[in-house]
């Protein structure tokens, strides 16, 4: 697999499209950090890290609106790919839907949202947009 982050986002996208409640993805430290950010910002209902074997898995419970049957995540867009990396400084931080969405940034201080990176005045690689 050449791009595990794109695979992670695609599995989430496919589970949302199929209206699944839970999706399992192979674990990595970067995927765990992205999952924690999605949970903290209210895009997923819950998550669980399962240590089975050398890699482990992440169980993600997707969040749906009970009235309208819509998901909390409208779009997951991969920005930086292995073939074309996208970096940003803290002054040029991307704004997703005028601040309604989040951009997940991999910085030297760890994985964080665009707003947190701008507050700390550090840039990094733009991994994905979520809204």
Please explain how this structure is put together.
The protein has about 130 residues and is α+β, with helices and mostly antiparallel strands. The protein contains three helices and eight strands. The strands form two sheets. Strands 4, 5, 6, 7 and 8 form a five-stranded antiparallel sheet that branches. A three-stranded antiparallel sheet has the order 1-3-2, covered by helices on one side.
Keywords:
single chain; 131 residues; alpha+beta; 5-stranded antiparallel beta sheet; 3-stranded antiparallel beta sheet; 25% helix; globular
Number of strands: 8
Sheet bearing the most strands, described? 5 strands, antiparallel
| Whole-angstrom Rg | 15 Å
Low-confidence stretches: none
Total helices: the number is 3
Structural class: alpha+beta
Order of helices and strands: HEHEEEEEEHE
Approximate shape:
globular
Beta strand %: 25-35%
Helix content: 25-40%
Distance between the termini: 26 Å
Mean pLDDT: 95
Furnish the topology, listing elements before pairings.
Layout: H1 4-17, E1 22-26, H2 29-40, E2 44-50, E3 57-62, E4 76-78, E5 87-88, E6 102-107, E7 110-113, H3 114-120, E8 124-130
Antiparallel strand pairs: 1-3, 2-3, 4-8, 5-8, 6-7, 6-8
Summed up, what is this model?
Helices cover 25% and strands 31% of the residues. The protein is of the alpha+beta class. The longest helix has 14 residues, at 4-17.
